[in-house]
Amino acid sequence: MRSTHERAGRVRSKRLPREVRERQILDAAVEVFSQRGYHAASMDEISEVADISKPMVYAYLGSKEDLFAACIRREATKLMEAIADGVAEAGNSPDEQLWRGLRAFFGFVGEFRDSWRVLHRQASAQGGPFAQELGDMRKRAISLVAALLINTAQDEGVGAAATGQTDALAAALVGASESLADWWLDHPEESAGAVAARLMNLVWMGFGNLVDGHTWQPPKGS
Amino acid sequence: MRSTHERAGRVRSKRLPREVRERQILDAAVEVFSQRGYHAASMDEISEVADISKPMVYAYLGSKEDLFAACIRREATKLMEAIADGVAEAGNSPDEQLWRGLRAFFGFVGEFRDSWRVLHRQASAQGGPFAQELGDMRKRAISLVAALLINTAQDEGVGAAATGQTDALAAALVGASESLADWWLDHPEESAGAVAARLMNLVWMGFGNLVDGHTWQPPKGS
DNA sequence: CCAAGTACCTACTGGCGAGTAAGACTACTG
DNA sequence: CAGTAGTCTTACTCGCCAGTAGGTACTTGG
Q1: Which InterPro entries match (chains A, B) (predicted)?
Q2: What DSSP string describes A107-120?
Q3: Domains of chain B by start residue, with CATH
């Protein structure tokens, strides 16, 4: 006879420290939220995927809302760090910064599809207090891009044409990236770099120039 | 004594033909879905907003899923027609076609905010059979844009630079529009035309050119 | 070896919401 | 006026799911 708590299937690993369980739970939650959406995801399924019982989920991460917010926070932080690292690797040239940022973003999406889905598709659809959580992160992303664009404009000593529009342009750029990332999920035959390059071309050169055969080329070091 | 079915509050209008009721129900559904999201929206609330009892909703529009799909279909059709009309008003010049299409799109979003929300935020988040319904419409939009871009490319006799990328570029462009539309909902001080012009500039000229002060100008007739 | 704390469980409750049963009212048609 | 077709209602059922009560095992420090 086996111990009371073991199940018919695989043996549940036992007595792990809180820290580890919390990570497991968050991983499971990201996976389930990303596949089902917030409302359709059930705490029962999350606990099952996390290979732990439901009360533990509540004990460690709190209510369903709390759990979702925690997912958003963790994944969004990961994403923002990836992008910031990418930009930091670039020199001062604005187009290279933009390029590295885009590459980092698409790299992240390719590597952590669930993270991306939960961030983009799920969070924005909910009206609750996470929309706020996620909205904040999104605003930080837009601000980062806006700052980058403003930098560019000042570097080149530009005037009225671009400044004052940067927020809107940053929003458009972020949206284009998001949308292209979704498109990419359905067309995985391309590499992250190739997708990033397409967007870079569109955004930097403009469609009018692309049509004339003038394209943007990445600098030597990647 | 009043008739059995009247309520304490305002008198419920009575015995309207099916056609009218269906429109009321769809209107209510779009409103509620747009505010709450698919799962959080309840059929009870929808029937209440539509000022009719729940079984009528089921009798006329079927299940919750059916109802949602019907909303998507109706609103998406409205949107696609608006854009197609806009493009059709333009001449043969590709930039003007793009410009008119963008203007029509942002005009629609400004006029029918709920429609836009239900289309963009809600539908894409659900994994059900509506994602399909909506996905189809979105694909049609992307195809329309892609066709327009291909036209442009051929008009100008271009080769490898742009063709073969058109699908991805169209996806990016559609995404940029969507995202900018969301941004606009939070910055309503701008006119639809101004927002459309910003995006047109970014997409047509490219950020590199904007920075140098080279902007795109709308043709005389709007 | 005992106590105390922490990890962990099974088994429930309570409410909400999709969908329906069963019929009542109204209007038209002959 | 009788019959029929279409509109419309109240008042349920029933399943699902967030959240909890109340306890069991392991483990660590004395």
Answers
A1: DesT_TetR_C, Homeodomain-like_sf, HTH-type_TetR-like_transc_reg, HTH_TetR, Tet_transcr_reg_TetR-rel_C_sf
A2: HHHHH-HHHHHIII
A3: 15-62 (1.10.10.60), 71-211 (1.10.357.10)
Work out the pLDDT band at B119, boundaries 50, 70, 90: confident
Q: Which are the contacts of B30, defined by CB distance < 8 A and separation ≥ 6? A: B71, B74, B75, B114, B115, B118
Q: If you count DSSP H runs as helices and E runs as strands, how many of each does chain B have, helices first? A: 11, 0
Cβ of residue B165 near strand D, that is under 7 Å?
Answer: no
User: Which positions ≥6 away from A23 have C-beta within 8 Å?
Assistant: none
Contact A127 B40 (CB under 8 A): yes
Q: Is the pLDDT of residue B111 over 50?
A: yes
| Residues shown for chain A | 222
The string of pLDDT tens digits covering residues B158-206 is 544 445 568 888 888 888 898 888 888 778 888 999 899 888 888 888 8
First to last CA, chain A: 60
Q: Are A193 and A105 in contact (CB under 8 A)?
A: no
Tell me the residue length of chain B.
222
Distance CA A189, CA A175 (A): 22
Could you tell me the distance in Å between the CA of residue B7 and the C1' of nucleotide D6? 23
Report whether B192 contacts B91 (CB < 8 A). Answer: no
Q: For residue A101, give the nearest of A90, A116, A109 by alpha carbon.
A: A90
Quick one: pLDDT at residue A51? 96
A197 contact partners, CB below 8 Å, separation of at least 6 = A218
pLDDT in tens, A167-184: 888 888 888 898 888 888
Contacts of A108 (CB under 8 A, 6+ apart): A78, A79, A82, A83, A115, A116
CA distance A211 to B182: 29
Write out which nucleotides of chain C lie closer than 7 A to a protein Cβ: 6-11, 16-22, 24-27
* Cα separation, B148 vs B170, whole angstroms: 9
Q: How far apart are CA B174 and CA B136, in angstroms?
A: 14
